[in-house]
Design a protein that fits this description.
This protein has about 675 residues and is an alpha/beta fold. It is built from 25 helices and 18 strands. The chain is globular and about 70 Å long.
Amino acid sequence: MAVDVPPYLRFLPEPLIAALRARAEPVPDVQGLVVTPGLQAEFPALESPEVLALVVEVYRAMRVELAAVLAERERDRAFIDTRTLVCAGANAGLVITDPRWRTVIGERDDLGRVVVGPDPDAPALPRVDVPAFMRGEQVTLFGPPDSARMAINAMNALHRKRPDEHPLIAELVAAAGQLPRWGADSEDSKTPIARDLLMASVNLHGCFERTLAFTDPASGRRYALADDGLALPIKRVAGLALPDGDHILDESPLPLHLVELVQHVWLNRRHPEALVLYFPKLETEREAAYLNQLLATTERLVAARDPSSAPAAGHHVRVLVVFENPRAIFRIKEIAAALSPRFLGGSLGWHDFLASTARLFRHDPGYRIPVKADPNIVIHHIRESHHILVRDLSASGALTIGGMYGVLPAEGEADSLMVSMVGFIKDVITQLKRGLGGYWVAHPDFVRVGIALVEAWRRRERDPGDDALDRLVALLVPDERELAPLGAFIAGPDVHGLSADDPRYHRAVLAAEFGGSDVIANDDPEEVRYNVFQALQYLADWLSGNGCVALPASMRKADGEPVFVRIMDDLATTERSRWEVWAEVHHGRVSRDTFERILAEEVAFIQSGAERPDKRPQVRWQGEAARWYPIAVKLLRQLMTAEDPPEFATELLLPFTFDLVRDAPDPWQAACALCPGRYLA
């Protein structure tokens, strides 16, 4: 089988591609293209022959370079693994905090390229022209446009007031005059089932057209977009690595990022504000150059078909890069320059950042990923990355955005709301202290409070005597036992970090120099248990078709008492969980027997339907999830214990998004038959 992009076979083996192709429908007048049955009839605005001909024309122009950049990724992975093993041998007798500890950072390959680390010849970044509609504070709600109701709620987030909202919040929000952003996520927050992705694109188009509405058939309640104050949607597409088995040209699955990007630009070609995209998982300037060329090609071909479109009028597609890879964080200026004039700014997606760093250091027995149970990861371990983002981009005028605060309170529980708010304030203030111009939140309830916090902080920056921030924090955290240490935190300096000339600095950028958490050890059975409990529920929910879910967790009050909360997990959080546990098992710090015992206990706990005050399963072993839990258990075991695990969990998960597997009497057996040798027994 001649597949244009061979790395896609990691996700879709040849027998699966052949089976998908055999049952697909041809596209009239687009020779060689077949599409999953029913999509053309159900989604004519996106799956018409005219739109798919555009997709194929763009793909044919870009497939050779895409194959080349992904092949380079594979060569770089091999180099990183080989050199890390060599370094591990050289580090015998040392501890990771020793400045002499060797890593692959800064090493050059046979072509003289620095594969991981800064390039001493980094280019200057041209001035970034931020469109008027994107200027200002970037308080961003992140979540998928899964349904019309979810999309409407996201668009209307500025108007979502809690019943107990104090007038000060309304005053600060009004004074800020800022519209929230909405990261309309079709990547880590979504299971990539074709119909769901296409419906999300339709919902998003309705937001730009201001036509989206929904009536709940059960309650009769009508949801509609507000007349003003709507959030600005910014679509996040898939990364370069993921193929699209629902669109196959000849024998090759098309790239999912390309299909989604071209369809989005075409459908929203009359809306310049729709031509800003979040793009994830770029690693190098060559990949950025590929993306720049892809965008230019798309613009040119859209303009040729519709001379009245925004690209034809000179409106470029602009990109916010999610810097969530340990290679990319050292190459921010290079990536930005390679994307010029389309580069708009960047954010730091820290869950994927830590997961991909753990993959990079997987053969380094001294490395410890910051534990998932640590509520202060952003504060203690992402400082250097924030500083690099601000240092490299601010002078150019580019946007600098932080990452996600994903903690949510349990409904109706005052202590849960309080500890969630304490954590939120600390995260926001930390990122503002570091010079970032925004951050992400996981729930609409945090949008107005988030805007108010930024406005109050800016007032204090302009006038140190302004007390708006003190008054706001006292309202949000009325318990003096919590307020006193929080106030000291706000007034105090940022956490101490290493200087750029320290021998360990580059490792500090990757949170790879501290040698272990002071919250809980990575190999502590309770940390392993927490990761298993969370990841198992997420995988069952992902397989059920839900790409993000608020999973149970706990945070501690100032006096140390644990309080139940929920944490919004997506695929990135599960990636970091599985790499954390994998490293502990692989390097012998957690025995396979211990892992299997913990897994069996967590399966039994969830399956029983039991719950405790400190432990309440969110994804119940019932309904659709009950069908997928046994498969989730097998996949989790492979992800956490295989000798050579897949780099991306989606290499195992993606086959379960297709009807010929999902609708089979036994999806596991169907996947094993179509992907021989892929799944462990």
